[in-house]
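Researcher: Next entry: T9SS type A sorting domain-containing protein (Pinibacter aurantiacus).
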Amino acid sequence: MRSFLLGLLVLISASSFAQQVAKSMTSSAGLFVGFYDFRPPGYVASNTTKKYPLIIFLHGIGERGNGTTDLPNVCANGIPRNIKWGSTMTYTVNGVTESFLVLSPQLDTKYGGWVNGYVDAMLEYAKANLNYDPDRVYLTGLSAGGGGTWDYVSNKAGNAGIFAAIAPVCGSSYTAYGMCYIAQAHLPVWAFHAVDDGTVPVSMTQNALALINKCSPAPNPAPKVTYYAAGLGGHGIWYMSYDETHTYANPNLYEWFLSKRRSTNGNGVNQAPVVQLTNDISLVLPTNSTTLDASKSYDFDGTVASYSWTQVSGPSTAAIASATSATTKVSNMVEGTYVFQVKITDDKGASSTGQLKVLVQTTYGADLAPICKAGDDFTSANSTVYLSGAGSYDPDGKIATYQWYQIAGPATATIIDGTTPFPTISKLVTGNYKFRLVVTDNLGKPADDTVAVSISTGSVVLVPPVVKITGTTTITLPTNTTTLDGSSSISSNANGTISSYQWSEVSGPNTATFGTATAKATTVNGLVAGTYSFQLKVTDNLGSTGTTAVSVTVKASTGSNKAPIANAGADFTTQYKDYAYLSGGASYDPDGSIATWAWTQISGPNTTKIVAGNSMFPTINNMVAGTYTFRLTVTDNLGATAYDDVNVSLGSTGKPPVANAGNDFSTSNNYAYLSGGASYDPDGSITGWAWSQVSGPNTASILSGNSMFPTVQSLVAGTYTFRVKVTDNSGQSATDDVVLTVTAKTATTALAGTVNTQALGVDVNAGSTKVNDLAKEPSIYPNPATNQITVTFTNDFVGNYKFLVYDVKGKIVTQYNYSKQAGQVQQKLDISKLPAGMYYLETIYEGNQKAVSKKFVKL
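Model: Predicted structure:
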């Protein structure tokens, strides 16, 4: 008893330690973040020499909440769901077993999508609290979280270099202009999407990957993508993406993560950081101080670790206040020209330098011309390119205007935003172009520069159209209609024109109707109080598509509050084994907004567990065959409530189980082992076993008669018939009989032991000692066990064999494959991932020869 209690305490301690712990913090940027902190079994905070890989997981839009009482919503899907149901996040790659740390923040409901501050906060928390490996940090998310994953690494130069790999699943957004940051950082990408996703179209992932693949130089490694066929789950395919087995991918996502490490630029060499400085500075005395700023510097494959400011030339009077800071004040300057240099060093020791000038004058002299920089010449294979005049500046004033012109090349080009530093050039065809930038300073003095763009003879990559929506987006009842206009949308491809428009409602009350859903401008009718999201999809004559969405807010008129409308969805029947998804997405409030959701079970089997029951989209787990009624209660922003019920039928196809009591056999012992291990259910699972004696001497007794592998004792010479009855999860049953012949012991038959030799497919009378050796029971030690058992047996068999482990319901839960030489075998088996309970171990030798099954207990 003492050792059992000790083992139980160890198990409880390990299980408790490996839970997701609710945490909260306010980041250095002032953002409150509630999140789950998962640390695997064996993690010791004081052991700072052991570093763990870290995953940051971003959930979908339905799991948003306040970061405190709503935090359990985060566990509805993906990695937090796996951990909640027992995953230790432990995997083996190339013979090395490692476990992940996982941080899962919750997005506040005031945000419609992930903002970068949440990932920043998790990185800040990890640096202060976790023993993690900064070269093995991974970012992943589903739906809105997939979009948040794309957005974080493409939003700002340097963000992509933080991670060893990313995995956006059904990503709902990305930052187009920054996708080449991913290629420049050599960031491994594995994207996932279903081709029939009706919520986030698969084109979102396709377009994101196209933008990465067209970068110059090309991405190394190239991004990886898995597209799921229609009918596998649509938008909800993330259960396959985040699966821990090899059912859907080998290696799985976590094993793939462990094969990736940061700081690769294609050949494993650390990249130097990039210096970003402000433009040169002009001062007029008596002003004799200014601020030098290198804070926008970054490192593609790491972080900037240190700064060092020095004066290179100029009068020796200048005083640098903070020479080791990203920004520093410089004072005590006199008339003259100063040159200051900053040296930045990354976290792996690589460094870069940059310089800027400070001109100090006694009075303003003649106006100096601005410096115009149109960027370096370049070559592209795309029909749309982006130019930059951001390097332009004025040494004694500021740039007042920008103007871009085409001065050479095919006449197809269109300049978009030509009066800004960052124009877009679209509709390019194969050929050589020149574009001129003219800048004018605040005193009217101009300067110009030219950039040459060569469009290669290779195939031009089509890019999505630019989609724009105009119209009234806020109205107050009784006005219940508005007009949305997409006529400003344009094709980004050469010789491209918009050929079709398609309007649709993405979210909000389901009352809206379109005047003409395929027109460039359409009226939207039937609006009620609430917030709508309407999407416009446009297609150009070359087949390229683009989408954008606009929010329309309908304010309630003055008057009494109207109750919300609850809609729990249509009744349905599912064949899924143990879970179902519910949706309250069609609920709405006619004069306000829905503030809370609450799902409860009204009737049906009491086995279920409602996950994320205070969200719009809950998951029902632990279902068995039967009919259930679930109720959705919604409360609006003024406290009015309403409810609606949905009936869910979970059934089988009506097929009964198949019982198999094993082949008839004989023995000379006074006991024998029976096996129903070959029984199965074609459309469910076997839930009950019942063995009974049908005929034969009445001396026999059955031990463990309600298990898959019973023992029959007190046998005497004669012929017995035993029957197994199996019952499946829908209540159907089947039976099968096995005939056991007991003979008096002889020298020949004594070797047969207790094994059903007919089931082995061998002849006892042949007297083969090798066959009889196979029939000898293996020993299991320790038993009971917590993490590992050792199986010992001796025989002359040479070849391949395997161990099968069954649970008490007869389901195979794991197997181990080995090969052996003649003689004794001592094989250690890892059972740490098995739930506590009783199991049966069966040995199968090549040629389908089976040894006696053995029981063991996992604590």
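Model: Note for the record: The mean pLDDT is 83.
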